Amino acid sequence: MAEERVPLIELRNITKVFPGVKALSDVCFTVYPGEVHSLCGENGAGKSTLIKVMTGAHAADGGEYFIDGKPVHISSTAEGIALGVSCVYQELSIAPQLDVAQNLYIGNLPMKGIFIDHKKLYHDAQEVLSLLNMNISPKTPAGELSVGQQQMIEIGRAVTRNARCIIMDEPTSSLSEAETETLFKIIGILQERGIAIVYISHHLDEVMLLSDRITVIRDGQNIITMNKADTTQDILITNMIGRPLDKQYPEKTGRKQGEVILDVQQLSGEKFRDISFQVHAGEVLGFFGLVGAGRSEIMRAIFGADKPSNGSVTINGKPIRPGSPADAIQKGIGFATEDRKKEGLMLRLSILLNSTVVKLPHLANVGVIDRKSQNADAEKYVTAMRTKTPSINQLAGNLSGGNQQKVVLAKWLTMEPQVLILDEPTRGIDVGSKAEIYDIINDLAKSGMAIIVVSSEIEEIMGVCDSVITIFEGNMTAQLPITPELTREKVLACSLGGKP
Amino acid sequence: MQENKIKNAFKRFFALDASAVIVAMVVLVALISILAPQITGGTFLTKTNIMNIFRKQTYIGIIACGMTLVMITGNIDLSVGNMMTLLTVICALLTKSVGPVPAIFLTLLIGAACGGLNGVLVGPLGLNAFISTLGTTSIFYALALIISSGFTQRAESKLFDVIGSGSLWIFPVPVVIMAVVVAIFWFVLKRTVYGQQLYAIGANKTAADFSGIRSKVQVMVTYILTGLCVALAAIVMIARSTSANPQAAGGTEMDVILAVVVGGTSIAGGKGTMFGTVLGFLFIGFMTTGFTFLGMNEYIQSIVTGVILVAALSFDVIKARRSKL
Predict the structure, then answer these.
(1) A16 CA to chain B: closest CA distance, Å?
(2) ipTM
């Protein structure tokens, strides 16, 4: 049916080569007006490159690009926007000092002669906001908005530029569940106006919910394009990783809980109160709660990145000096943070340095690094975790998300910590790599490490943890052992402030 | 087959961070060598000229070593020029009052203290490096004028004659001093925990802090080391000219930063090598000596220097953009 219409965007046999890598080869992709066309694939499959070709950020090395059936050559994102192709990126580009209206019309302000037409600006902005169902004043400083609202402003910006195709790259990665639902409603509204959406997400349930059609790419090549009705999540996964995924989560059998390793008592800070819990050797403890409930803040306080206002953290009976990550590391805590790129990795440096940076003082004699041990340590974890890289001298920034996460894990594992805190360990990681990370967590628990997993994915918590602590507005609401009887609904209810 | 090999060698060469400065240097030296006989009738590439480059410019090279460390952490030190002025004046006055050997020690100590001041501001206090060293530069300058009453101070001693004009085999002593400093800093950057932690801090300070690195202290130490380098440079300077002119060393920071940046150290931090800095230093040396040799107007030289700094910075940015996947 759709095939008879003229596609809004048609990419034919697109090829893109980077030094040493063929990122795309002969990829075809069509988008019809008003449809949601999802793009699926593992990290490094070529999704980002394809988007960049569509928006004009990259020039293709081969192939043809049609808009409304006419061949076009887009050599910059500005030209792409002029032709109606806009992209909402993972990294938000909101100017926090400017107000909502200015952010919406940034680079595109309505003018009266040489002056900004403020009357028209705020009037038009109000219209866009009501289209997006947003009940805020256009004069609100954008910095005061929640991440979800900022994302809406980004989408609004595309609307003000008369976008006919909006590309959304992992739009829900930092949204709460309620905000995600609002986003889906907006997508519906945009579709009704004939705007096409190219949707990219690792959350296959979202993909299945929203899409009209789904295209899977793998290793820079088209694998398949399907109508939603003809596919299932399993089919998608099989196509993405090139083989059926036997199981997402490893068996928890064989883990034995030992003595108490980490003891947290009455820990309080700006965003959380009275947090007390213990983690045993060989235990995987989950922390579940909404984004912004204070989970990450609790972990930062335990690790010493922030100073708590009250309470104590002890490891094997020894207290940890508040506010000193160096002391926490010394006493055996590792902390893989939520934001890999900002807090975890030095993207411009090698895997070698990234994975040994914590252990470096221990790999040295009088400050001089023993390079043999350093190389050996880095190699050991690349092999053990099957990190896909040509060598340990590769820059961390050139790795895919899943492999970057493995480097972050390696950096902590080199220290052989007694407690490992993993904050959102699989954010932005594809299914295949996720299963590998879960295997690693399971193996570490078997070896007797005490592990904390913070996650906003309830399946992940249920799949890998022995018990779960729910956090609601900075308070512990429940600690529940994970048994076959425990339901998702119960955990969710507790995380929303309900009684266990 | 043969063609491919050459192609690969070219590719490998251009992948080096230092490729641009090497090419630029070869072009520059060739240009000057061709122009020199026509304009002045002399030959540029002679042993005397080359040794003069080293002898005259060593102080820039010595300071550039410390600056490389500072810039690798993503910071900068604009105060080195006037810090050197202050330290030469102090060294001259101390030589007159307590003799050359104690003067040298005290100058090094005071240099470390001046660097320490910058270091505390940028490290533990976390102030912006650009602004705080811009502030201290005017403090150092004023102190130099006050201490010297604005007059050139003479400092003569046999020890200074040896340092300034002596030679070890064919190498002038200042060049030997610089080579030693370069070797030490090369080792520190490449092989020590401290050096590698500086790269980590420059590449991502938050991640470095989260990895247990005491970045505030480590950054402070880069400034102290730079202060020591400046003190050493001041001593070499005084040994060569046997006098300290409170107006002499202003603008040195420009040449030092130029050498470091041309050598491929990224102003954003996390990238840079001593090898590159040495090349950058050589480039500046060949350029200034060559232009003077050709009798080029001093102001025109300044313009060229500025153009090259901007060009080097743009090259850094363009290369970073292109390597992004």
Answers:
(1) 11
(2) 0.83
